[in-house]
Input
Amino acid sequence: DTAVSQTPKYLVTQMGNDKSIKCEQNLGHDTMYWYKQDSKKFLKIMFSYNNKELIINETVPNRFSPKSPDKAHLNLHINSLELGDSAVYFCASAGGFMDTQYFGPGTRLTVL
Amino acid sequence: GDSVTQMEGPVTLSEEAFLTINCTYTATGYPSLFWYVQYPGEGLQLLLKATKADDKGSNKGFEATYRKETTSFHLEKGSVQVSDSAVYFCALNNFNKFYFGSGTKLNVKP
Output
């Protein structure tokens, strides 16, 4: 069983389009995260939700909007995609304070 | 604010060589410390962790000791294998906020 899953694995799209990435975890965790990893492997946190409530919202353009329909899902919607949005996006979840994070396999987004 | 600093790569070693990847941190309170590994084309996987000072995390021959006096969590392995080639991330968790280092790429040659 996959603990943290993301769809799609690859996403190729044109500038200006709107796209969504879905994330689901079956670990029963309360907290979920979205990260962006650039071409140099630098990992930057974007958002964190705890029990469907936003608790971390780093400096991210408001074209990015997370949505958590329940605590097992955290989706990322991106409006008006730009070339600089090309990256690998990772979803992760954790059980509580000081706990380990478990990562999904990543979604490679390419904006043409 | 909290942060993690790790040595820049890439690190290139021959098989069976000794590995050290340095990691230091800045944090208020008592964070948990982690090493994650990312193999090519995959997500990050937990390699080991330590939750309090002087704890030693270990897994697959890798070890790291939580040193509060030097605010360090250096990763070591006595004898690396080609299959250890990957990117290694040091991280801390302080009240459910994670901070990652910039990653260190390890290349192990046969």
